[in-house]
Write a structure and sequence with these properties.
Number of strands: 2
Helix content: 40-55%
Distance between the termini: 74 Å
Strand order of the largest sheet: 1-2
Mean pLDDT: 77
Largest sheet: 2 strands, antiparallel
Shape: elongated
Number of helices: 8
Low-confidence stretches: 235-250
Length: 250
């Protein structure tokens, strides 16, 4: 028979006033959702659904039925595993669609520095979150054993990876190589300019060439950072970012 949730609750409370009606009126997202096989529900003609977390007590948490409703059986584990793979693939496809086409890969030296910058930013984000829960960084389980929260482990991994970036940077002298790339670009611009003013078609005198060179040098100085490559700003190469090799463990 088709009755509402309120009617089910009223019917149940009339028979079992001291017991809460089990399950839910309908299947809910993120819940097991298996039909309950409670004899008291059956006698009242009520259909209810399991409200346990999907995959609770199984190897496929958040997918499929809980362990009390067949979730731990071999066939169900196999089915749930396939569902998890499909869901993860769809999530990755959605993320890839949002990201769009990947940006072209820049010079390896630049890419390495940008990865190091992101690693440093990631550490800062984690430390901000740690400050918010500083009083809860250690938890205690039912056996009374203290455990560090997962955020500490993530922070430690971030620090470890950032240190590796720094070691790699110093080993290959990436700072010098990136500066050389910037200087190379400036040299190309200068060479292009000089090829124009020295052209026979321009018919410039030595005095005019000298004036043009001075004007060009002044213009380059005025432009400053505007002439830097598009990737240069993200690196923020300055003395504070250069770590002495002695400060990094071998």
């Amino acid at each position: 028979m088709n009755i509402t949730n309120e009617e089910q609750t009223s019917l149940w409370e009339g028979q079992f006033p001291d017991r809460k009606i089990p399950g839910t009126f309908e299947k809910l997202p993120g819940k097991c959702g298996a039909k309950l096989r409670d004899k008291d529900l059956k006698e009242l003609g009520i259909e209810r659904y399991c409200n346990k977390r999907s995959g609770m007590g199984t190897s496929h948490l958040d997918t499929g039925a809980c362990k009390w409703h067949g979730g731990a059986t071999k066939n169900h584990i196999k089915s749930a595993s396939k569902e998890m793979v499909v869901r993860q693939f769809n999530e990755l496809a959605t993320i890839a669609e949002k990201l769009g086409d990947a940006a072209p890969i820049g010079p390896p030296e630049v890419e390495a520095f940008q990865l190091a910058t992101k690693a440093k930013q990631w550490i800062s984000i984690i430390e901000t979150e740690m400050d918010k829960i500083s009083h809860q960084l250690v938890t205690e389980d039912q056996a009374g054993i203290e455990h560090a929260r997962a955020v500490i482990e993530i922070w430690e991994r971030g620090v470890d990876r950032f240190q590796r970036f720094l070691e790699f940077s110093m080993k290959h002298d990436l700072h010098r190589r990136v500066v050389e790339l910037e200087e190379q670009q400036a040299s190309v611009i200068g060479a292009a300019f000089m090829s124009v003013i020295l052209s026979q078609d321009m018919k410039l005198t030595e005095s005019q060439i000298r004036i043009a060179r001075n004007l060009f040098a002044n213009s380059m100085n005025d432009l400053g950072d505007q002439l830097a490559p598009t990737w240069s700003a993200s690196l923020r190469l300055n003395d504070d970012d250069i770590v002495d090799a002695e400060l990094v463990e071998d």
